[in-house]
Amino acid sequence: MNFHRKPHTFIGQVDLKVSNLERSLAFYQYVIGFRVLEQSDGKAILTADGKTPLLSIEQPGQVSPKQPRTTGLYHFALLLPKRSDLARVLQHFIQHQIPLQGASDHLVSEALYLADPDGNGIEIYADRPSSSWAWANGQVVMDTRALDIRDLLQEGEGAQWDGLPAETLMGHIHLHVSSLQEAETFYGHGLGFDVVSRLGNQALFISTGRYHHHIGLNTWNGVGAPAPAENSAGLASFDIVFPDEEARKSAVRRLKAMGVTVHESQAAWITEDPSHNRIRLLI
Predict the structure, then answer these.
(1) Domain ranges of the chain
(2) Fold of 10-282
(3) Is 161 strand, coil or helix?
(4) I need a labelling partner for 128 at 20 to 30 A (CA). Which of 29, 106, 134, 227 fits?
(5) Residues 207 and 105 sit within 8 Å (Cβ to Cβ)
């Protein structure tokens, strides 16, 4: 089942601020495997299929290093179409000695973790079939176990890595927030996502259509963590894509009824969550 198209609400393009565009472009092309869709002074839009924007990177004026212990990006997550694609990515990382921050079996998926040159977190993952996911009391069963590297590499079928597959999607985004309760109200009541997993009082996973998660939320940078400076490297904004105009209008009405500021700009509605993560609401 495809959880990243109608009738679901899902994550679209993610926009990052970086401290050195040339360095980041090299990383995202030759390490991650993106292609350049558009490029101008100080900004590039990246794609996997040559037509769909997945990631933008921009070097602001007087940019400062990514600030620790703030709200913002924990990681964005690229969803590959097949397990064999993940195996080829892993082989590529091993061959070029790319340092990883983690490699995990989450039961619903298998994932590799690393960071870009500015410390922006990246997950590259492949889902297990949704028919194999276990649910208990309305929550999907997830875990963090060591990834079976040998078994995964055998799935690579000896094929060479050739960048991101054209079918790669922005699978989910995981955010640092200052308050889980405020985040749950905003994303749940306001934007219409359902809670599908809780990790104590530290993390929350939400989705539509019973996906394991389109958005992760955590307070691992501290309850009450401040937002980063405007010119700090890190998350600039991200897109939430609604299935149709009525679904988006309903979300905008709910947000406004909650007292949240929402304004229209260039065919998108722009808002911020309670932790000042900027969001574009699209269809």
Answers:
(1) 10-282
(2) 2,3-Dihydroxybiphenyl 1,2-Dioxygenase; domain 1 (3.10.180)
(3) coil
(4) 29
(5) no
